[in-house]
Design a protein that fits this description.
This protein has 594 residues and is of the alpha/beta class. The protein is built from 22 helices and 24 strands. It is elongated. It comes from Helicovermis profundi.
């Protein structure tokens, strides 16, 4: 090593030592605080977003349906625009059609992801009106906007069939674009994500027959002609209109407050095709169903009306079938109630038997009891599916008299038989308390079996299906306290004492007798011509316990309610009368209140 190299190395060592000393001097001496107890320091947390359920929001959408059905008439809407009312207008047509002319002040968000993208920019403190071409996709949009928190309405018939037909529309038409650029509304993250997926999903069906979550009239007809069982048809038209004519195979869930209660019968493994009159409320329903997890689409143009021609099933000349609506039939059952209230006195009944009158007698007691002895000529159809199975074999051109043991299940049977088209009545107090108490009844008793083997009556398919389900349902309650769609006096008493709020007690006795004494907690809806009009006030989320005097008319009411979707049962023996003791509430010595 030469001298120069040695000097350089020495200089480097000196510099390194200097830096090391400086570094140590600048490093603060810290105490070991690992064993110190530190005070908690409050850290501000972001408020958690409210947890919401799409199903809950959709249930509220239908349960709280306003009288305007989330829709505004096109003429009224134009007047609102002319009056410069404070509102937001959303045009969801294509950008090109918007540019060609739109309602003054309208903002464009073409049908698709543009709608979910614009949500935060739409003011939530003023009404929101949406229009498309025909009203159908706007119907979907309105449902999504309402669940997002907006006070949204769709403009009836959209631009093509509604707005453009309004006299003076030119005065409120503009080509000047309007935009919303600021975020002014906070959307719940769960809802935002659901709506993002909803509108993004349109791209997945864009090149299919379900484009825009719709199906054309022709495509639906082809699927029906091919008996394609991958679809499930739902008409949301009113019961009367459904009865007069509907697409074959459709079920009816009328567009109304509370219609969501009918969604539970819908399958999640089929394509649900929803239709209404022109497509608009079906659009709302379709969006609601899709957001609840159903694979739903709406029929283009709905059933079709003159005002939306040539769109719509009927406007294409496609066929419909008529049926008997349970709601209509049950309303008629009560409204047209005869003086005999679908019953016949046991003495009068045996007089008819004695006179060999032309009639059919149906004994719905067990096969064993029928075999031991029954009224001459009576046919046996034991209470259960045998009743719905025998319908086509019962003659419809003669009176039909039904009896059970006490009259109560025969009361149910009579309601089902009348709506099936028969002139049916139940024998008062049945076999045990009525027929067998008539002096000389033995003269009309036999052990000879009578049978009906031929199909002689055509039953409406919808009614047959409903009654099949009614009687098949008895097996579901066979091992419960609600066997035979009834409840015993003791079981009801226990529920009342336990303050069980799952039940709703309904007295079908007269207002006068109700006032004299009734079961605690019962409300009064007297059996009679006006009874059906009070059904809409009854809850569908409780077990309705119906009672009358002896159980027979309560049986009729129970059957009617069950067929209309209520979970109804009748109280065994009713309030109780002398002739049906020891059955009935008061015959058991149970308390009543005034």
């Amino acid at each position: 090593m030469n001298k120069n190299t040695s000097k350089v190395l020495s200089l480097l060592l000196i510099l390194m030592l200097a830096f090391s000393i400086a570094g140590c001097a600048s490093t603060p001496v810290t105490e070991d605080t690992s064993m110190e107890v530190k005070e908690d320091v409050a850290v501000a947390e972001e408020p958690a977003a409210e947890v919401v359920s799409l199903e809950t929001l959709e249930n509220e959408y239908f349960a709280n349906k306003p009288s305007d059905s989330y829709m505004v008439n096109e003429v009224k809407f134009v007047e609102m625009v002319k009056n410069n009312e404070n509102m937001t207008i959303l045009d969801i047509r294509s950008a090109n059609d918007y540019a060609a002319g739109h309602v003054k002040g309208a903002v464009n968000a073409p049908w698709g992801t543009a709608i979910s993208d614009i949500l935060t920019k739409i003011p939530s403190d003023k009404p929101l009106y949406v229009y498309c071409y025909s009203g159908q996709t706007a119907g979907q949009a309105v449902n999504t906007l309402v669940v997002a928190g907006f006070e949204a309405r769709t403009v009836h018939f959209g631009w093509n069939l509604g707005l453009s037909k309004v006299e003076g529309i030119e005065a409120v038409t503009s080509t000047e674009a309007n935009v919303l650029t600021e975020d002014v509304t906070e959307i719940n993250p769960v809802v935002q994500e659901a709506l993002n997926q909803y509108y993004e999903g349109l791209s997945a069906v864009k090149d299919t027959k379900y484009k825009n979550y719709k199906i054309s009239e022709a495509n639906l007809k082809e699927m029906l002609d091919n008996k394609d069982d991958s679809i499930f048809l739902v008409s949301v038209r009113q019961a009367v209109d459904f009865s007069e004519g509907h697409i074959e195979g459709a079920i009816n869930i009328p567009w109304a407050k509370g219609m969501q209660e009918g969604f539970s019968v819908l399958p999640k493994d089929k394509k649900i095709v929803v239709y209404c009159y022109t497509g608009q409320t079906a659009g709302e329903t379709t969006a609601g169903l899709r957001l609840m997890g159903y694979d739903a689409v709406s029929l283009n143009g709905g059933m079709g009306k003159a005002s939306n021609s040539p769109s719509g099933w009927l406007n294409k000349g496609y066929p419909v079938v008529s049926s008997l609506s349970l709601e209509v039939l049950e309303n008629e059952y009560f409204a047209n109630m005869p003086k005999h209230i679908y019953k016949i006195n046991q003495v009068e009944f045996l007089d008819k038997v004695k006179a060999n009158e032309d009639m059919t007698i149906l004994d719905i007691r067990s096969a064993d009891d029928y075999a031991k002895g029954h009224i001459k000529g009576a046919v046996n159809a034991p209470w259960g599916t045998a009743v719905s199975d025998i319908l086509t074999k019962l003659p419809s051109d003669k009176p039909l008299f039904v009896h059970c043991y006490s009259g109560q299940t025969a009361g149910q049977a009579v309601n089902t038989l009348v709506i099936a088209g028969f002139d049916a009545r139940s024998v008062n107090l049945g076999w045990n308390f009525g027929i067998s108490k008539v002096e000389g009844y033995e003269e009309f008793v036999t052990t000879d079996e009578s049978v009906l083997t031929e199909d002689v009556t055509e039953i409406d398919k919808g009614i047959q299906s409903a009654l099949d389900a009614y009687y098949a349902g008895l097996s579901d309650v066979k091992e419960t306290i609600f066997k035979n769609y009834k409840i015993s006096e003791a079981n009801l008493k226990q529920k009342i004492e336990e303050k069980d709020d799952s039940i709703y007690i309904l007295s079908a006795r007269s207002a006068e007798d109700y006032a004299k004494g009734h079961i605690e907690g019962a409300v009064n809806l007297p059996y009679g011509k006006d009874m059906a009009s009070g059904f809409s006030d009854l809850p569908k989320d409780k077990k309705i316990v119906v009672y009358c005097y002896s159980g027979q008319t309560a049986g009729q009411a129970t059957a009617a309610m069950r067929l209309l979707g209520y979970d109804a049962v009748s109280l065994n023996g009713g309030m109780g009368v002398g002739s049906n003791a020891p059955l009935g509430w008061t015959n058991k010595g149970y308390d009543v209140v005034q």
